[in-house]
Amino acid sequence: MGRKPFFSSLASRDNYDEVIQYLAVAETQHAPRFDFDNAPDELRELMEVAKTPRSPERSQWLNDYADKTWAVPDGEATVLFAKEHLNAVRHLNQFLRSANAKLKQDGYFVCAFDTSQKRRAQIFSKHISIVAYIIYFFDFLWHRVCPKLRLTSKFYYLCTKKVRKVFPRPEVLGRLYYCGFDVVSEQYIHDRYCVIAQKKREPYDQPHTRGLFVKLRRVGKNGELFNVYKLRTMYAYSEFLQTYIYENNDLDVGGKFADDYRVTEWGRILRKLWLDELPMVLNMMKGQMKLVGVRPLSQQYFSLYDEDLQQLRTKVKPGLLPPFYLDMPETLEEIQDSERRYLEAYMKHPFRTDWKYFWGIVGNILLRGKRSH
Fold it and tell me: By CB distance 3.0 to 4.6 Å, which of 21, 113, 151, 302 could disulfide with 86?
């Protein structure tokens, strides 16, 4: 059952256990499975206690454990436990960077939070559908939009005595990667989403793109990296999950990631209408791209290509209209064959090749309704 039908089926039933049971499967579908047998004793003990039934003794043990781990000098902690759930942390990136500094290399950080899907399911389970949609809309604006906008964030924290920000699961995972962690485990423990992350690097220094438009690092001509402009179709910080998604998801038809949960519902609409790529016209004006050409790829996706095609790709500028829309390949191998044919033809006859591909691509998009999968 998809998410929308599930939420609709919850209307006015107020079945909290059913909500958690569904989310425990749906949100961990592509989550990695961690081998606790090889984990440090401290981590195994922490997770064993966390999974026990809730009680005052359990809460006290976890609070004491968190205080003990955070009292360790910087760079010496093997396991670090976040006492508060992440929704209650006002400056989350600053908090995650502090956790990174506390840990040894390859140390473990354990945290928990309430996901936006859980929040949505809770609302739909308590109200009839039309009321649920109205409440969810304003709840979305208040707890997800207002804390992030400079014009409204101060007002939000002034009105909210206890911070209760709502985070989509991909945003929290992306923030962890942004702050130097790799995610090794995701699971629901009782009714809260628990993540175990391992320190692998120092936090990134590059600023994170906010707002409707995003800048994504892509491989261009001569192998130089440049920023591609696009309309946002993914949750915030999703760009830092590229490798994580590749390791835990299969490639779908068309070379995209299967069941890419980083894409928002609005993003799927924008992609279907091909509107998300219109800002790349700015890249054409700056001379970084041309009208017809191979897709500009991320470094991670670029690394999946055959070495000879990598070298061929870097000899020309990427394009806004890729040969993909002419051939409509379905596998990575077919995509590479399609691009190789285009590039070899372009190297011999640039203008003739782009002229031929342009009309073929436009015909497929406008007359045959071809779209990227």
Answer: 113
Q: What are phi and psi of 69, to 5 degrees?
A: -70, -35
What phi and psi, each to the nearest 5 degrees, are found at residue 239? Answer: -65, -20
pLDDT band at 344 (very low <50, low <70, confident <90, very high): very high
Alpha carbons 213 and 231: distance in angstroms, whole number: 5
> Whole-prediction pTM value?
0.81
**Partner residues linked to 321 by β-bridges:** 292
* Cβ count within 10 A of residue 228: 22
Burial 140-164 (b: 16+ CB within 10 A, else e): bebbbebbeeeeeeeebeeeeeebe
- Burial profile 73-101: b = 16 or more Cβ within 10 angstroms, e = fewer: eeeebebbbbeeebbebeebeebbbebbe
For residues 111 and 189, is the Cβ–Cβ distance under 8 A? no
The values of phi and psi at residue 211, to 5°, are: 90, -170
Residue 220 · residue 226 · CB < 8 Å: yes
pLDDT of amino acid 300 = 83
Q: Of the ranges 1-10, 77-86, 268-277, 300-309, which one carries the lowest mean pLDDT score?
A: 1-10
Phi, psi values for residue 227, rounded to 5°: -90, 120
pLDDT value, residue 289: 96
Would the pLDDT of 91 be above 50?
yes
Q: What is the mean pLDDT of residues 345-352?
A: 96
Which of the four pLDDT bands, split at 50, 70 and 90, describes residue 25? confident
Triad 272, 248, 198: Cα angle to 5°: 125
What is the per-residue burial (b if ≥16 Cβ within 10 Å, else e) of 307-334? Answer: eebbebbbebbbbbbbbbbbbbbeeeeb
Report whether 208 contacts 287 (CB < 8 A). Answer: no
Count the Cβ atoms, other than its own, within 10 Å of residue 115: 21
- 3-state secondary structure (DSSP) of residue 250: coil
Which one-letter DSSP state was computed for residue 6?
A: H
Matching residue, tokens 């992440």:
86
Sketch out the chain's domains with CATH numbers: 3-199 (3.40.50), 213-366 (no CATH)
Band of residue 276 on the pLDDT scale cut at 50, 70, 90: confident
